[in-house]
Amino acid sequence: MIRSLVPGDIAPPFARYAHGVACEGGSGFVLTSGQLALAPDGSIPEGAESQAALCFANIDSILKEAGSSRDGVLRINAFVTGREHMAGYMAARDAWLADIAHLPASTLMIVSGFTRAEFVVEIEVMAALP
C-alpha cells in the first residue's frame, strides 16, 4: 500500500505533491520530498545551520506520520547553494544524527538555487519502516 504523508504540524507543500510517501508491507520505505526551511508561520530562518535544523525537524514530522523515525533513515540527500553553507548544514546533520546507532549513507551537492533566494539548504531522506 502506498500512502501520501502531509503532516499538519509543518508548512504545507508548495504545490500538488506530498511531503513524503510511505510504501507499506514487507520491507516498507518512506521517501520524503526535498524539505526547504519554511516554518508553519511562513518564516524562513537565516543561515544554513538554522535552515537545515528546520528541514530536519520537518523530516522528523514526516517520518513520525509514516510510523518511522530518524533511526530508520537509510540515505540523506542534501543540497546547498554554496560551499560557504556546507559547514552549517553538516553541523545540523551531525546534531540530528548524534544519538543514532547506525549512520546513513549521505550525499551533499552544491546547486545554483531553489524556488526562493532565501533558501540555502534542501534535504530529502529515504527511511525504512519498522
Shape: globular
Specify the structural class: alpha+beta
CATH superfamily: RutC-like
The Cα radius of gyration reads 14 Å
CATH architectural label: 2-Layer Sandwich
Low-confidence stretches: none
Beta-strand content bin: 25-35%
**CATH topology annotation:** 60s Ribosomal Protein L30, Chain: A
Number of domains: 1
List keywords for this structure.
130 residues, alpha+beta, 60s Ribosomal Protein L30, Chain: A, seven-stranded mixed beta sheet, 2 helices, 7 strands, RutC-like_sf, plasmid, YjgF/YER057c/UK114
Structure, explained:
Keywords: Plasmid. Pfam families: Ribonuc_L-PSP (PF01042). With 130 residues, the chain is of the alpha+beta class. It has a single domain, classed as RutC-like (60s Ribosomal Protein L30, Chain: A, 2-Layer Sandwich). It is 23% helix and 28% strand. It contains 2 helices and 7 strands, in the order ββββαβαββ. Strands 1, 2, 3, 4, 5, 6 and 7 form a 7-stranded mixed β-sheet that branches. Strand 5, helix 2 and strand 6 form a beta-alpha-beta unit. Helix 1 runs parallel beside helix 2. The longest helix is centred in the middle third of the chain and has 19 residues. The relative contact order is 0.25. The mean pLDDT is 95.
Secondary structure blueprint with pairings:
Elements: E1 2-5, E2 20-23, E3 29-32, E4 35-36, H1 48-66, E5 73-80, H2 86-96, E6 105-110, E7 121-128
Parallel strand pairs: 5-6
Antiparallel strand pairs: 1-2, 2-3, 3-7, 4-7, 5-7
Helix pairs in contact: 1-2
Pfam families: Ribonuc_L-PSP
Keywords: Plasmid
